[in-house]
From TrEMBL:
UniProt xrefs under InterPro entries: Gamma_PGA_hydro, Gamma_PGA_hydro_sf
Organism: Nostoc flagelliforme CCNUN1
Bilayer-crossing regions: 21-42
Pfam families: Gamma_PGA_hydro
Highest taxon listed in the record's lineage: Bacteria
Protein name, per record: Phage-related replication protein YjqB, UPF0714/DUF867 family
Length: 418
């Protein structure tokens, strides 16, 4: 995989997903209350809102007891219970959200974690993993109205009702957010990402699709995208209209810019993104790069193996392996401007702002590097060499180190063929 670089709520179970599956009757939905701040104390229903009520988001008018501290409880002191939240405020412009994480919508949590660790973004994750008997019994008693599974049925909160104070404050403090969701077969076609969110001033939906469509030929297998609000997409892609994600109360849209990017992913795409298979590295790099491009950040390098050649130096013969950064045109030329105020590269006191390094993917050892590239276009001529007769590394990856903002962008792994 692309390796990492370094509630107060009370609601009735009703959501866009159970609607699209057609298995929920509104009158028999399950009320639940979730708290991310104090699992051990009963949370206030009027703080988190309910599915039935008035207002925006609706105030809770039900007198049913909260689940926190009773039926469904949070992890505590190393004990794994029914749910937990992870909150990371890295003072980034972008927040990655997976509030249907854990086993609620499978493999959304590791995707948001990838985004946080690869780009240094903020993150909020609500992770459901029903364990206790009392919490399990809630679903068991409601299987006639919800058959999707106990984590989804018990812990899923609709995006427009998700207003945990911790998540609202984190999202609202920054201008950009991306929410990772999972959609079922009745809501989206396989190999599909349904793209939505509130885009009034920004063009995040269009930018994401344009980026993915530009580079998806590098990816093995099928990758389809669909603009849900515009009801247009790739041939063969289908997405339910309820996945548009345009509502201003949707937590992903409650940023300081009042705009957001929502990605509803089919299960096969989520499984591949969350896997450790090298063959899916390019899929991760393309999708994660598309997200970065959509929110105005630099993407991950998309690297391929070029030709090989031999040369002689100091009486020795070497095999030279040429690498190409396929998306080099996506990088701003300022990344490779001379940076005399930053540490020198040997005797070169005017080396580039961004240094490029090539690593052995098996042991993360640096093989070779370039500290004086003058343009992103020079990324089509990076290389490393191995003395003739020596075995090259099985795989390599490339990192771009922006020394000015102390950020590293790591590429996919590239298999080296002999």
């Amino acid at each position: 995989m692309i390796t990492k670089i370094s509630v107060n709520r009370f609601g009735i179970f009703l959501s866009k997903y159970t609607q699209k599956l057609g298995t929920i009757a509104l009158g028999t939905t399950l009320l639940f209350f979730l708290s991310s701040l104090c699992w051990y104390a009963p949370a206030l229903a009027d703080t988190f809102g309910c599915y039935q009520g008035t207002g925006s988001p609706a105030a809770c008018t039900s007198s049913l007891p909260p689940l926190i501290g009773s039926e469904c409880i949070a992890n505590s002191g190393g004990t794994v219970n029914d749910w937990n939240t992870t909150i990371a405020d890295n003072n980034s412009n972008v927040t990655a959200l997976s509030f249907h994480g854990g086993q609620i919508e499978a493999n959304t949590s590791p995707i948001s974690e990838d985004l946080q660790e690869l780009y240094g973004w903020n993150r909020y994750d609500f992770n459901g993993h029903v364990t206790t008997a009392d919490c399990k019994s809630l679903w068991s008693a409601d299987t006639s109205t919800c058959t999707v599974g106990r984590n989804f049925c018990t812990l899923h909160i609709t995006s427009t009702r998700f207003n945990d104070n911790a998540s609202v404050n984190l999202v609202g403090a920054h201008p950009r957010a991306v929410a990772i969701h999972g959609c079922g077969s009745s809501g989206c076609s396989s190999s599909t990402i349904c793209v939505g969110g509130r885009n009034v001033i920004t063009t995040q939906i269009v930018d994401f699709r344009n980026y993915v469509n530009t580079y998806k030929a590098l990816v093995s297998g099928t990758l389809l995208t669909f603009n849900v609000p515009a009801n247009t997409g790739d041939s063969g892609a289908t997405c339910a209209s309820m996945l548009a994600g345009e509502n201003a109360n949707n937590i992903v849209n409650r940023t300081s810019s009042n705009e957001g990017l929502q990605l509803e992913m089919s299960s096969d795409i989520r499984n591949r993104l969350a896997s450790d298979d090298q063959e899916d590295d390019l899929l991760r790099a393309v999708v994660y790069g598309g997200i970065a491009d959509a929110v105005g950040e630099s993407p991950l390098p998309l690297v391929s193996l070029g030709n090989t050649e031999t040369y002689t130096a100091n009486g020795k013969t070497f095999t030279k392996y040429n690498l190409n950064v396929e998306n080099r045109s996506e990088y701003d030329s300022q990344l490779f401007a001379p940076a005399p105020t930053l540490p020198a590269c040997g005797s070169n006191t005017n080396s580039a702002r961004t240094w490029v390094n090539i690593y052995n993917a098996d042991n993360d050892q640096r093989i070779y590097g370039f500290c004086a590239l003058s343009s992103p276009q020079n990324l089509n001529s990076i290389w490393f060499a191995v003395e003739l007769g020596q075995t090259p590394p099985a795989s390599v990856y490339v990192s771009l180190v922006d020394r000015q903002i102390n950020t590293t962008y790591r590429s996919n792994r590239v298999k080296i063929t002999i």
